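Morning F.,

Quick status update on the modeling queue. The single chain you submitted on Monday has been processed. Sequence for confirmation:
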Amino acid sequence: MGDIASTVGPDAAPSRAAPVAPIDRLYPYGEMVLAVVVRRWLTSLVLAFTLVAVLVTASMALLRPSLDWDALAYTALALEQPGDSAEALHGKAYATVKSLVSETRFKTLTEDDEYRRHQIQSASAFASMMPMYRVKIGYVEALRLLQPHIGVLRAAHVLNITALLLLMAAAIWWLDRNKALLAAPLVFLVYLSLQGRDVLEGILTDLPAAGLTVAALAAFAARKPFLTAVFLLVAITVRPDTILLAIAMAITAVLFAQQRLAALLTLAACFAVYFWMVASVGHIGWWPHFWFSNVHIQNDMSGFAPPFSFAAYAKGLARGGFMALAYNNWPMVTAMCLTALALMWRFEIKPNRSEAATLLVLALTLGAKFVLFPLPDDRIYLPLVLALILTTLGPIRRWLSSQPRGGAG
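Structure tokens below.
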């Protein structure tokens, strides 16, 4: 015991101080620099980075366009003149698209399967597909307005890039209202994961419809009924199934006693536009279109009017569900958002009234959209899933704000 005491007692030799590492000397200065960046410039830097990412992605769409078969239909309608025969419409569409893509790509568009081979061989079969595209009057008219000046492909790109900027502006406005601007890159990443590049590069209605839909939902969440109505009405002319969103908003407004008159008047206007478009172009109707897209593709839609079949409907629904889960991202992103909301609810972090109303609108629209027309593709659900992310970020930001700040250890 004496030997042990002598080593630790007052007569023991003092221990050497640990050497100070250079990083420890620099640490206070690094903290000071980070504090300035985080407090003053971080949000601006994040938004600038997001804007650069958006512009680079848009630039790639101009440099490397990608067209699928729908480009032939929209090109035909953009170039259509009064009195054009089916043969004239067919010839202009195929000649124009052939001039826009490589020989290999054109061969894929025209020979890849029986449907495509039949379309290039039969002008009447090709013309029978047009009512399914012609009903998107707003998009077709915008292409017709722009294409004489810049060509149909550049016209589609102008519409797509404008829609992307509108979508991101609406998303940033939404994030700013929730004090969650730092999540802007996450929102754009989710956009890219939902076929965001594909819809930007081609001649499709999906991105213009998505931009208008997210803007309408942002206005609804902010309780701006006039803006909501304007964006909804334009969106319906680009993608008529947006009528489901208008119905969901009206139901929610009634249930929440929130601007009911404005919502019902907007719904009435949307129904008027919807039925006018369907009647004016001679649309084939829901069930033939359902069969064509979800049960079995038809080489010619002339006179196609199959009787309703529960078995065929179940087959289409099962096919859409399997394809969505196996090959697309929107079900997983939706599930992650709902899981986050459920976990926060458990810890008493609940959506506020506006967020709850928006979540109900999204649930009704997503459910109705899939049940009535179960296309599995990410691009179909892109605006609704983005709006779900934006709504979920509100409670998440409040939860993070409620956490205690780090203190002394």
